[in-house]
Design goal:
Oligomer: single chain
Shape: globular
Number of strands: 45
Length: about 850
């Protein structure tokens, strides 16, 4: 039995793992018809480094290291040793050795990573010995296997009913997938399409596609019971084709479609929405429309309200057998664990969803002895103490967790995230000819380790299920659509056991026809924000941020913005900060803006620059007014370090910017869409301005000084106080100085000090509608309460209970993006919209050509 999928031992090198499949649970019995032994194998999983062949599509190599493993049996207090481990001819087997009644034992695995290593890997695997195994059944109604000749992708799920002598309410419903007990075979004609592994694990390799939605059968027999699983082989990764002289993977079985947006994909931002757990295209389309319709029409989701014409929405769905995805919570001791099903006995059938995702994890208890040792006090624990502790703590994880690739769908040789992105890479738009640039559209969403790709990360995995947290993985982000799913349980009548399904709870999920579109859209847009390198601004845990530099454009750490040297006791004081070191401190508010359409290089000693703009002629003509120092122009260079999507340096320094550009005489050529500016001084060195850079005229104060996103009065206030506008230090209790600021599970919106608000009002400064939107530095973000700063007191990246600008959805969900986050999104998508979001934020703001005279 290949054992796989268990939490990583973080004490080890991440490239080498022990896998235990499918739940670190092994089930044996003292008396069964045709008794079997379970074969134990331990594999080293080594990351494949360097270039890999496209045909292989693998991330890891697996090596059998069972011969280097030491197996010991540990028995919890009050139990009896009921299992034996034997190695004969290089094969290690597990069998029942004695005892009475249901017993729990543990196998202690000790393994050296290399023969010369002084470090060992320790794991405990749970073994339950039952009185009897009375019946079994397949956990799949249908199984879709990706075509892939190199290794098996899918594994058949098998469940069993044990301990028949117990009452029906105490009978154990257990998972015996991969145990090798059931005799598996292939139905008529199945061998033309699929192959089974040779050791009874139920691993299936898809060799040739089945036609349409037709299936072939995997069969099973044991204990006088028979079953079948219909299997179809799908074209998940596509096949190699010659497109434009290049060999590329093409998936014509599940083509991508446009949902909204016009024009060429090369001139727009492309957002791909992958459906998962939808049984019909109509339901998937309805969910997309409800989400994107709100996203691009409501000020609540600004700046996307202003960026609708800059996006093309693409969609792709492999229809699932039924709505929803699999629940991966392990079934053991007769219970299904989950917050919505307290005390119910039964199983979750494995669902045949298009992308093979699941909720929860297979009985993911941390079995690493290293983790357990660190949690015990009073010196090094004995093996007995550790065994007793594992036995007491062992419970299935809640299903309210992130969706992951189901271990019975994705092989151990592949990371499921990479497999999904390989599927995305094969997507094509069959509505256009093969030689059209949009035909191989899937390549737009692939990472390039050497070059910036604007659409990388613009992929949403839209899951038709409930009870999990949305997240962004970098390659794609996930969110769920059904916020009000209803769970129902029905129990069959009791009668003699002819088939175990007659005596178990049938757990089904009945989906409502509606979702909470506002809540789902909020989550969708928040997660999409991460694709623009915006970090979470909430505080899940009281404590100081542990890093130095933060790889998000909207966050700065104390180590970067600290004023002077670090204090001897930082917990006892509010540390002094230098607000000029904040990443967003030097960014200007924008009165007028345009996007530079093509790269332009300024040679050394050049005295002027000519830029080509992407807007219409009337936008180009506006720059005829920029012919004096009081309304000079600026250029913010849109440059990235290779594949990074960060727009601002993470060390707090200013972005590359050309300042005080004066229009050259006759410098506007509206027909050619070019504008020529004189430089304030000859270029000291050659500079390349990248396409997508921002040409802008800043908002100025009455003395003609460019105004920054942080109001000058706010900067002056922070320079005087040398403190952030809010802090989370409990100075009366330095031993526990970082406060837990969550309120009812959500962090509050922070307001700046009243003294600052009074100063702003007296100065008649531009103040947003809500004081918590005043920009500056607020402490607490990146899950930590202290040592990290965000731009505003509230933001969609923070998730707080405040009304949005339109005054609705109060008390739940997320509000608008703060001005800095909007700036970052607009700057990447379409810099022409900077002036729009500035006016939206400060609708009553006047600009001045000279003191006292409104422009």
């Amino acid at each position: 039995m290949l054992l796989s999928r268990e939490p990583r031992n973080h004490a080890l090198n991440m490239a080498t793992e022990l896998y235990v499949e499918p739940g670190a649970d092994i089930h044996l019995a003292r008396s069964t018809a045709g008794a079997n032994q379970v074969v134990l194998k331990v594999f080293s999983k080594t990351l494949v480094h360097g270039p890999r062949q496209e045909a292989e599509q693998r991330d890891f190599d697996l090596q059998d290291v069972t011969g280097n493993v030491r197996f010991d049996v540990h028995v919890p207090t009050g139990m009896t040793q009921s299992i034996a481990i034997n190695t004969v001819g290089g094969v290690t087997t597990l069998s029942v050795s004695g005892g009475t009644g249901k017993q729990t034992n543990y196998i202690h695995i000790m393994w050296q990573e290399t023969p010369a290593s002084v470090n060992y890997m320790y794991y405990l695997i749970k073994v339950t010995v039952h009185n009897t195994i009375d019946g079994w059944w397949f956990g799949n109604n249908r199984l879709s296997v990706p075509k892939h000749s190199l290794f098996a992708h899918c594994q058949v799920s098998i469940f069993a009913a044990c301990d028949r002598a117990s009452s029906i309410h105490q009978r154990s419903i257990v998972d015996i997938t991969g145990h090798g007990f059931v005799n598996l075979g292939l139905g008529a004609g199945a061998g033309d399409h699929i192959a089974l592994d040779g050791d009874g694990r139920g691993k299936i390799t898809g060799n040739t596609l089945t036609a349409g939605n037709s299936t072939v059968d995997v069969t099973g027999s044991w204990l006088g019971l028979n079953g079948t699983v219909p299997v179809r082989v799908i074209d998940f990764y596509g096949g190699q084709e010659n497109i434009g002289g290049n060999q590329v993977r093409v998936n014509r079985s599940f083509p991508v479609q446009r949902h909204a947006g016009t024009g060429s994909s090369g001139s727009k931002c492309n957002l791909l929405i992958l459906g998962e757990g939808f049984s019909t295209q109509a339901d998937f389309d309805r969910a997309i429309e409800q989400i994107t319709g709100r996203m691009f029409s409501s000020r609540r989701h600004s700046p996307f309200l202003w960026l609708k014409d800059d996006f093309i929405i693409w969609k792709n769905l492999i229809p699932s057998e039924a709505d929803g995805i699999s629940i991966a919570t392990t079934v053991y001791e007769g219970n299904v664990s989950g917050p919505d099903l307290p005390g119910h006995n039964g199983i979750w059938q494995t669902r045949d969803s298009g992308l093979g995702m699941s909720l929860g994890s297979w009985n993911s208890v941390q079995n690493s002895l290293n983790a357990l040792v660190s949690s015990l006090s009073g010196g090094a624990p004995t093996a007995q103490q550790i065994t007793d502790r594992v036995n007491a703590r062992r419970q299935a994880r809640s299903i309210a967790s992130l969706p992951e690739g189901d271990d019975r769908r994705y092989p151990a040789e592949m990371l499921f995230k990479n497999a999904i992105m390989r599927y995305v890479k094969s997507l094509v738009d069959t509505s256009v000819p093969d030689n059209d640039p949009d035909f191989t559209i899937g390549n737009k969403w692939q990472n390039d380790p050497l070059n910036f790709k604007k659409d990388y990360g613009f992929v949403c995995l839209l899951v038709n299920d409930v009870n999990f947290r949305a997240a962004n993985s970098g390659s794609y982000f996930t969110t769920n659509v059904d916020a009000r799913s209803v769970y129902a349980a029905e129990r069959a009548a009791e009668h003699p056991l002819h088939h175990p399904s007659a005596h178990v709870w049938k757990i089904t999920r009945n989906y409502t026809a509606q979702m909470e579109p506002e809540e789902v859209t909020d989550t969708f847009v928040h997660e999409f924000g991460h694709s623009f390198e915006l970090g979470d601004e909430y505080e899940e845990f009281p404590g100081a941020y542990g890093g130095t530099q933060i790889g998000f454009d909207n966050l700065s750490s104390i180590d970067v913005v600290r004023q002077g040297a670090a204090p001897a006791n930082p917990a006892a004081v509010v540390e002094s900060i230098d607000p000029s070191k904040l990443k967003w401190a030097s960014l200007h508010r924008v009165k007028k803006s345009d996007r530079i359409a093509a790269d332009v290089t300024i040679p050394q000693n050049a005295t002027s620059i000519t830029v080509t703009l992407s807007g219409e002629e009337w936008r180009v003509r506006r720059w005829e007014l920029n012919n004096n120092p009081n309304n000079s122009a600026f250029i913010l260079n849109f440059s990235h370090a290779n594949f990074s999507h960060l727009q601002f340096p993470i060390d707090g320094t200013s972005p590359v910017r050309l300042e005080n550009l004066i229009l050259a005489p006759g410098g506007v050529n509206a027909a050619m869409k070019t504008v020529t500016f004189n430089l304030p001084a000859p270029a000291a060195a050659a500079i390349t301005i990248k396409a997508g850079s921002l040409l802008y005229e800043p908002v100025r104060d009455c003395d003609h000084h460019p105004q920054t996103l942080i109001d000058p009065h706010v900067l002056d206030f922070m320079n005087r106080t040398q403190e952030p506008l809010s802090h989370n230090k409990d100075l009366a209790n330095p031993a526990n100085s970082c406060l837990d600021v969550r309120v009812a599970g959500r962090p509050p919106a922070d307001n700046p000090p009243q003294a600052l608000i009074t100063e702003l009002q007296n100065a008649r400064a531009a103040v947003p509608n809500h004081h918590f939107l005043i920009l500056g530095a607020y402490e607490g973000a990146a899950n930590s309460s202290c040592g990290v700063f965000r731009p505003s007191g509230a933001c969609k990246m923070r998730d707080h209970n405040v009304p949005d600008a339109e005054g609705f959805w109060q008390g739940a969900g997320e509000s608008e993006f703060c001005f800095v986050c909007q700036y970052i999104i607009v700057n990447r998508v379409n810099p022409e919209k900077h002036e729009v979001i500035d006016y939206q934020t400060y609708p009553a703001m006047f600009t001045f050509d000279n003191c006292g005279a409104p422009a």
